[in-house]
């Protein structure tokens, strides 16, 4: 047991060394040359190449692979994507599945050396999370513009990384964008936290399963209805991945939200 742990730690350290070197090198190169490229090629150069190299290092060093279910549900035109957030892995992998894409990010992430500087070149939707109304307005305006330009809009609707035994109620921003734009919502579930645990060095070898659910048609729906449908799809997909307790947890959260709404209206 101790030997296996030592081996996994050594492999994780090797991965992170490669991760850091690739990020510094590719981020610096991207800042120097990528700005001259057309946007779509720039996205593939900056993010597509970098994420594929990092995920290759992860597979070689730590034995973490991926299996995708539901590719037939991918729309032919860009839409809004809701992604489960358990670890760093999905922030990398999702860039290879939907391209080009605009990701909703905290504004301060763009100030991170190398990574943030290069990311600025890719038209992310950067928000000030301390200004809730302003952030929602930015998401709707810039998100609709990106969709009109044929760019996917990707969000983590739970708002932050959550432990693998939890699913939180979705924040309203992504559903508000769908309500305003009338674009479909695609729900993507996975079990990455079982192989790349948050805030831990060791990566567990094995296969991360990704489940792409059928797209939700949002025309004529209100934001709460959109979130309810998206949460139901995410819950069902996570149950298929072995997380059966999510259904009851979400039912409790939704009941509490309904109670608060009713109390607030009296």
Keywords summarizing the entry:
disordered C terminus; seven-stranded mixed sheet; 14% strand; globular; 8 helices; alpha/beta; 7 strands; 50% helix; 266 residues
Most strands sheet: 7 strands, mixed
Global morphology: globular
The total count of helices amounts to 8
Strand content: 5-15%
Overall radius of gyration: 19 Å
Helix content: 40-55%
Q: Low-confidence stretches at least 5 residues in length (pLDDT < 50)?
A: 258-266
Strand order of the largest sheet: 1-7-6-2-5-3-4
How many structural domains in the coordinates?
1
Mean pLDDT comes to 88
Tell me the span between the first and last alpha carbons. 59 Å
The strand count comes to 7
SSE ordering: HHEEHEHEHEHEEHH
Structural class: alpha/beta
Written account of the structure:
By secondary structure, this protein is an alpha/beta fold. The chain has one domain (63-264). 50% of the residues lie in helices and 14% in strands. It contains eight helices and seven strands, in the order H-H-E-E-H-E-H-E-H-E-H-E-E-H-H. It has helices at 2-33, 39-62, 89-97, 115-119, 132-148, 173-181, 223-240, 246-264, and strands at residues 64-69, 80-83, 101-106, 125-127, 152-155, 185-190, 206-212. The protein has a seven-stranded mixed sheet, sandwiched between helices. Helix 4 (115-119) links the parallel strand 3 and strand 4. Helix 5 (132-148) packs across helix 6 (173-181) and helix 6 packs across helix 7. The chain is globular. The model is unreliable at 258-266 (pLDDT under 50).
